[in-house]
Recover the amino acids of this structure.
């Protein structure tokens, strides 16, 4: 494994010897060691089934929803072991966006953005709420389009707009990290471009980790890239360097389209 | 950025976690409470009923009050059995099936073949309404139609009619659902071979859907086996074994009701209740088995 | 070709029978209740008297309408927390586990028990229990009947809710978890709002079932023809008065009983239609 990004300065995450198994002996992710750089976009890429989503979801302990998944090793967020925090505290520092846009269908747009607060039982004053919603929607460049329809349910929005709404929902909480699991694979090229521009903007405030099956997307917007293959972290380094001069033959094979 | 970051409130998190566990506890407790009655009921019936079940139980007719009283006074088991009830139930249910099954299957097939029509939706709605009619109202209806006008007196046939109307919606619904699960290619292949419609129905559709149809039939039979109220005003009951459908006839639930009303017959109450329960449960199990076989694609 | 047409006609005619039977039911009930309505007018529905004395017969349906509504609604109230918990147990907390399958089968068993057997158990076990708790002298009455009814309708309330709850998409739940919600919060802020109409519909259908229940209630309600005044007072329901008195009734009394049957038919029909309507509208 070629890893240029270990023991760097002030990383957001430190991953040490992380392995995740769905069944006894069957590892989806094996012996991952990596640091994640602050306020950058880190892309996780690789062929289908390489474990990239599994790795991503380990960062906010989503695997605990499924009791047959076992995790070994550690992940530190700002030098604190994430398994020693409560999941609630952890997930308030980490926002997640999923592959298919999934705004809550029974809530209107306004309530969707503020859903994180409502679910956590945090009551805000009216003007606080309004300003949070406005800022989040402005940050995802959705404000102008929906500011007059905040009380409508989000079902009339296009796929790209719905996904931006989901990003707004995830960042309304001011997390430190934003995890995105193939956020544009269900969207058309124009919406995809919009989301990519948005992410580049957002990295000024948030550390972004992005699983993508589209290597050109990784090349376009990420600062660092992880290449995974059959559960292992094969190569991890600065995106430009990796794409122009991959160190591992497997990385090169993937990037040149020999497989994947 | 809003004024200040939202503080992670440790107390709030602990409180929410406590509520979370507490609620889970309540859900588990209430779920357990929900199943306690079934254990109690089955347990009681088995324990109390098993004593009186013997060979005579099945072949002798029900005793009258005097016989029962005498036996109790002499500390003997009550003579007699529920043969009149068993044969009566058999008679009534068979006649019900003869009416409801062909009719229900035909209507189910009609609905399946004419899915999108407005008329079909209308019939489906009416069928659903019919399904919700309380059984005692159907007893009244059968009384008015059959007891009053056709058999001029209480009769097994009247009982069968009321039960048949109860079975009908269930059979219609399960037939349509079963037919929908048959791959359309099979049906089209049959037509493409030039087979006449009725042959397609009898030689292809019904055999293909056999287990689904049987499940629906078994379930509707188990539904009507325990019905008492409509029979009280149609078949009325009888102390003898009867095979004439125009005469009053006994049935197992009716006998249970009679025994219940007579303080001398208590032990017979439990044994007949046990018998009825076993009958209903075995039909349910059988239809469950059929469904499972259907799902795994095995033939019975 | 000809035989095909014949087959189609036969099938169509069969379907007509559903219409004929249903129309016939409505018609016969109306016809049979005419004498009662002619004699007492529509006030029959709100008359609180049931007096079969020869020469001054007065019949009114009010005590029984009250009995039916009170027992059924009380049964629904008792059944609600139990059925809701059981649905959550099966469809959410322990979804796809062995325990949940066992629980589910046991609830199905509850549905298969005939009404008269519930009545027997109620009479021989529940009643003495209630007497021993000192709640009532005889053990009959509204509370006992409602309790038995509640147990009887639990499977109906549970099965539809369970289905609807398990159909809430995983991604919505995951989104809520990723925002830091606890399981309880996911249930109340995501699952219930999305399953709301199905859950409500299942309770309405359970209510419809309770309204028509006859045997168990007849055996436990105490059979007095008055509007029940307290939780443990006796009474009668529409179904139980018919069950009790239909056998030897004739003339005006018979017509009054048929009229009550008509009312029961109408009330049950309305409640069931509301339930089905809600399912259709929101799914």
């Amino acid at each position: 494994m070629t890893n240029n990004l270990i023991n760097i300065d002030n990383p957001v995450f430190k991953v040490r010897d992380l392995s995740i198994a769905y069944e006894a002996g069957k590892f989806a992710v094996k012996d991952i060691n990596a640091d994640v750089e602050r306020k950058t976009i880190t892309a996780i890429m690789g062929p289908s089934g390489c474990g990239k989503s599994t790795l991503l979801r380990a960062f906010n302990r989503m695997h605990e929803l499924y009791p047959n998944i076992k995790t070994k090793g550690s992940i530190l967020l700002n030098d604190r072991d994430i398994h020693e925090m409560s999941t609630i505290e952890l997930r308030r520092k980490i926002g997640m966006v999923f592959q298919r846009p999934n705004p809550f269908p029974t809530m209107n747009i306004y309530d969707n953005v503020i859903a994180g607060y409502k679910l956590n039982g945090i009551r805000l004053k009216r003007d606080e709420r309004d300003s949070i919603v406005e800022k989040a929607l402005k940050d995802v460049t959705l404000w102008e389009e929906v500011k007059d329809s905040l009380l409508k349910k989000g079902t009339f929005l296009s796929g790209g707009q719905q996904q931006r709404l989901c990003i707004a929902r995830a960042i309304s909480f001011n997390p430190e990290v934003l995890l995105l699991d193939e956020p544009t694979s269900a969207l058309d090229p124009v919406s995809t471009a919009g989301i990519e521009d948005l992410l580049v903007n957002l990295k000024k405030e948030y550390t972004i980790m992005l699983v993508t099956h589209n290597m050109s997307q990784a090349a376009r917007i990420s600062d660092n890239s992880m290449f995974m293959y059959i559960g292992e972290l094969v190569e991890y380094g600065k995106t430009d360097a990796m794409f122009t001069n991959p160190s591992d033959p497997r990385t090169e094979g993937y990037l040149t389209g020999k497989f994947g | 950025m809003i004024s200040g970051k939202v503080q992670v409130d440790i107390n709030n998190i602990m409180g929410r976690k406590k509520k979370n566990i507490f609620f889970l506890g309540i859900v588990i407790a209430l779920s357990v409470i929900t199943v306690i009655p079934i254990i109690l009921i089955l347990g009681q019936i088995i324990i109390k009923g098993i004593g009186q079940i013997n060979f005579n139980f099945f072949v002798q007719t029900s005793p009258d009050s005097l016989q029962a009283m005498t036996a109790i006074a002499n500390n003997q088991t009550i003579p007699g059995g529920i043969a009149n009830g068993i044969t009566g139930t058999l008679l009534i249910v068979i006649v019900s099936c003869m009416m409801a099954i062909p009719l229900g299957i035909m209507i189910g097939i009609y609905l399946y073949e004419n899915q999108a029509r407005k008329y079909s939706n209308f019939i489906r709605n009416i069928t659903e309404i019919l399904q919700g009619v309380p059984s005692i109202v159907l007893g009244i209806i059968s009384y008015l139609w059959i007891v009053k006008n056709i058999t001029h007196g209480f009769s097994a046939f009247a009982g069968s009619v009321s039960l048949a109307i109860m079975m009908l919606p269930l059979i219609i619904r399960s037939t349509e659902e079963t037919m929908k699960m048959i791959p359309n290619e099979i049906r089209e292949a049959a037509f493409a071979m030039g087979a006449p419609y009725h042959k397609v129905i009898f030689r292809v559709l019904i055999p293909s859907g056999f287990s689904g149809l049987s499940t629906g039939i078994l379930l509707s039979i188990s539904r009507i086996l325990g019905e008492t109220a409509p029979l009280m005003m149609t078949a009325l009951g009888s102390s003898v074994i009867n095979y004439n459908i125009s005469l009053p006839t006994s049935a197992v639930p009716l006998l249970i009701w009679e025994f219940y009303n007579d303080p001398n017959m208590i032990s017979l109450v439990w044994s007949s209740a046990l018998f009825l329960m076993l009958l209903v449960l075995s039909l349910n199990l059988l239809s469950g088995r059929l469904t499972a076989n259907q799902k795994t694609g095995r033939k019975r | 070709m000809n035989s095909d047409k014949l087959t189609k006609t036969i099938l169509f005619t069969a379907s007509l029978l559903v219409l004929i039977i249903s129309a016939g039911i409505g018609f016969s009930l109306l016809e049979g209740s005419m004498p009662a309505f002619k004699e007492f007018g529509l006030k029959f529905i709100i008359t609180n008297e049931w007096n079969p004395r020869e020469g001054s017969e007065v019949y009114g349906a009010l005590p029984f309408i009250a009995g039916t509504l009170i027992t059924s609604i009380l049964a629904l109230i008792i059944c609600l927390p139990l059925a809701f918990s059981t649905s959550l147990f099966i469809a959410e907390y322990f979804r796809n586990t062995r325990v949940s399958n066992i629980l589910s089968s046991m609830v199905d068993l509850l549905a298969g028990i005939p009404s008269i057997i519930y009545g027997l158990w109620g009479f021989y076990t529940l009643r003495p229990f209630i007497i021993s708790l000192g709640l009532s002298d005889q053990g009959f009455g509204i509370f006992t009947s409602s309790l038995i009814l509640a147990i009887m309708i639990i499977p109906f309330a549970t099965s539809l809710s369970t289905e609807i709850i398990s159909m809430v998409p995983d991604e919505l739940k995951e989104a809520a978890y990723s925002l830091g919600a606890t399981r309880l919060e996911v249930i109340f802020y995501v699952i219930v709002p999305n399953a709301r109409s199905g859950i409500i519909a299942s309770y309405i259908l359970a209510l419809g079932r309770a309204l028509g229940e006859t045997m168990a209630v007849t055996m436990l309600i105490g059979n007095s023809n008055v509007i029940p005044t307290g939780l443990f007072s006796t009474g009668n329901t529409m179904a139980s008065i018919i069950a009790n008195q239909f056998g030897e009734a004739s003339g005006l009394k018979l017509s009054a009983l048929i009229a009550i049957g008509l009312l029961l038919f109408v009330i049950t029909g309305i409640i069931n239609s509301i339930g089905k309507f809600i399912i259709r509208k929101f799914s």
Summary: The radius of gyration of chain C is 23 Å. Chain C has a mean pLDDT of 90. Chain C touches chain A at residues 169, 171-182, 185-186, 189-190, 193-194, 196 (CB under 8 Å).
